[in-house]
Amino acid sequence: MSNLGQIPTDYKKFLDMFLHKYQAKENPVRSLFKNTNIDSADTTPEYVRLLQDYSAAKGFTSFDDPDLLADGARPQADSMGTEDATSTIKSYAKAYRLDRKLLKSSKSTIQSFIAEHALQKVQIIENQINRNLLTNMASNAGQTYTATGGTWSTTGDPVSDIIEAKQAFYDAAGGQAADFLLLNPNELGDIEKDNRFQSTDYVSTKQMETGTITPNPLGLKVVRDPAVTTGTFFMGVSGRFGEMMISENFDTTESDEGLAGKVHEIVFSYIDQYKLPRYLMYGTGI
Question: Which CATH number applies to 2-56+87-284?
């Protein structure tokens, strides 16, 4: 952090510079959504959810079977299989005060402490957003899967479960293949200990030396997040099942409190919408 220079008089500018340089550029859960920016005055945007289910035998099952048409007759009109929905913007913020003696300090350790403290505040907000998103993903997923062979840490077979879930997903999504698998670190650890995910028969790198698994096993990007409930997983098509609309992306403000120091505030405001829930699966029993 030495390249940030001394803490300037404009403390807000310093923190903004730090957050831009050191804040993680990609949040694992948020990155699975389609991310867009919206106006901060938008509070309850309306949207339409497409609720049609798909089966390989019949196609989209929200539609009735095709009519046997008599001469001169017209087929019955089906609805589009949609519903109107609204979403409300959520804002999460943290604030902290810095003593005037800290602000006057030119010691690099103090600079690092202040910068690290700011990042910890950002991570607290991120963790809350993650928990919210995962709760909403579970309740809005259009597909479900239950493993029946036992948990992966006991008698379960991760390869079998993932392949079965992928195939079920493909059918119900109308021929769209899943591209990500979101796991708790416990279940990620289970597949890391499975030599089928380590084998150099699949790739040329040496997983046992690097502590990694085969890249994109079974065609899926594996994402870990400790907020995922252990024993569960999410599978889906990134950027398709939902949209995350951001109006304030860790915006910062500063207020002077005289000899007491300065108060710094960080806010993140967003809306999450689930327009194509059939492109998201929630699995249990692993």
Answer: 3.90.1690.10
Write out the chain's pLDDT in tens, 286 residues. 444 444 455 666 766 776 666 555 557 899 999 999 988 887 777 778 877 767 666 666 666 677 788 888 888 776 666 777 778 899 999 998 888 888 787 777 777 777 788 888 888 998 999 999 999 999 999 999 999 999 999 999 999 999 999 999 998 898 899 999 999 999 999 988 887 887 655 555 555 555 667 778 888 999 999 999 999 999 999 999 999 999 998 888 888 888 888 888 999 999 999 999 999 999 999 9
The whole-angstrom separation of Cα 255 and Cα 239 is 38
46 within 8 A of 83, measured Cβ to Cβ: no
Q: Three-class SS of residue 284?
A: strand
Q: How does strand 221-224 pair with strand 180-183? A: parallel
Task: Write down the domain spans for the chain.
Answer: 2-56+87-284
Can you tell me whether residue 226 is helix, strand or coil?
coil
pTM exceeding 0.85 = no
- Cα of first residue to Cα of last residue in the chain, in angstroms, is 42
In b/e form, how buried is each residue of 49-58, taking b as 16+ CB within 10 angstroms?
bbebbbeeee
Beta partners for residue 182, in sequence order: 223, 234
Q: How far is CA 152 from the centre of its chain?
A: 23
Helix (H, G, I), strand (E, B) or coil at 250: strand
Return the beta strands (E) in 51-89 as ranges. 54-55, 59-60, 82-86
Structure-token match 């350790």, residue found: 109
Reported as type and span, the H/E element at residue 101 is: helix 100-104
Q: Which of 5, 45, 12, 25 is nearest to 243 (CA)?
A: 45
